[in-house]
Design a protein that fits this description.
Blueprint (H helix, E strand, L loop, with lengths): L2 H6 L5 H13 L2 H13 L3 H29 L3 H8 L4 H33 L3 H5 L5 H7 L8 H18 L2 H26 L5 H9 L8 H14 L6 H7 L7 H29 L10 H12 L3 H34 L4 H21 L16 H30 L1 H8 L9 H27 L7
Bound molecules: tryptophan.
Length: 462
Amino acid sequence: MSEEQSEGRGSFTGRLGFVLAAAASAVGLGNLWRFPYLTSHYGGGMFVIVYIVLAVTFGFSLMVAEIAIGRRTGKSCISAFGDLAKKYKWIGVLAAIIPALIVPYYCVIGGWVTKWFATTVVGDLSTLTSDGGGYWWSYITGGIEGMGGPMIWFFVFAALCLLCVIVGVDKGIEKVSKVLMPMLLIMMVAITIYELTLPGIWDGIVYYFNPDVSKLNGGTFLGAISQIFYSMSLAMGIMITYGSYMKKDVSIEKSARNISLIDTTVAILAGLMIVPPAYIFGFGDSAGMGLMFVALPQVFAQMPAGEFVAPVFYLLVVFAALTSAVSLLETVVSVFIDGAKVKRKMSIIISSVLLFVIGVIVVLGFGPLMTDLSPFDQGAGWLGILDTLTNSFLMPIVAILTCVFIAYVVKVSFVTDEVESEGNAFMFKRPFEYMIKYICPICLAAILIFGTLDMFGIYSVY
Ligand code: TRP
């Protein structure tokens, strides 16, 4: 949020403005990079189905709850929890730590995308497809010193993000993303339609949609729920802050439904664009988190005029990633303003030091600082460690605490009254109450415990 907003606490104009702003921040690398590679990792269709089911139940409920807390208190997450019950301020603090841990590695990946754009815009698509898909890994683990290496591109992307925060261009970004986001969607649809002409693609599509029960294990649920939190920007205080800027007469339920719908649609579409071709080209799980960077260049290489399509596509992805990164960094900045009561300028300095120091560690984590904390690091060094720590541990814990806080400290009616304020209907009120009081906390705890045991190979439920 920009300075003028945080001082005067402005608000979004109407439901469309709110939904679009929240969706622009939610749609990003989570949908385009993370969802497809997790789908491949967890065996295709089964993961997609578990994801959708959890998104419309857990994801939607938590989104309603967070937006309502934000609007009712008019505060961002640290103050919201603290104001409601002083003893529980730490839940807000815990939630607020998460964006600070995400934004550095988000910018490292944003740097990779920018590199892919820079490479294709000068007509060098063939570099990206070289070495039978091995280029991505040798790029991120190699050329750290080189001019075009991952360190440089991390700095470029992070600096761009920082610049947007310093200049306070969120209004501008909002306008630009209203045009670019639909363009990205149209492009994704067009690329997917082209892929239907690839020989054997049907096998890949079947893999993507067909649920193979034998692939189901404790990890699938933990993977899916962590992806929901990450992609829908939940369990880290963001939607509380967004809610605090929402007008009273706008329906929280409808807004939450639309944001969830947009975010999930983009994720499913991104998966459809990336997973089937990756499957038929034989990358599957072997590419790990590089799936998007490995599989798509192969598609562009075969596409007529692919060398022109590729840079446009990557540029749009850079934008989608940038809008999310800016909103993440803004959150970190506002956390220091709110939590440590420092001035905005000071807060920007602290946040950027954190961003650059952790980011550099993440980049070096693929080279000299490589650590082996398998399977916790997902084979991706510090990036994997931060990713697992935030998504698979901190977010489920914050989500459980949020539910317990609502159900047993402030009471569910605190949220439902807010959803129903100014005569707005709350269609799923009963299911929502059950979700927050019982189903979410119990199931999330089970997912967390069994998922962790599964991750470390200690005990598998299936
Ligand atoms: N949801 C974003 C994505 O899919 C990533 C993200 C996580 C985010 N937390 C956020 C974006 C907070 C903005 C604010 O890429």
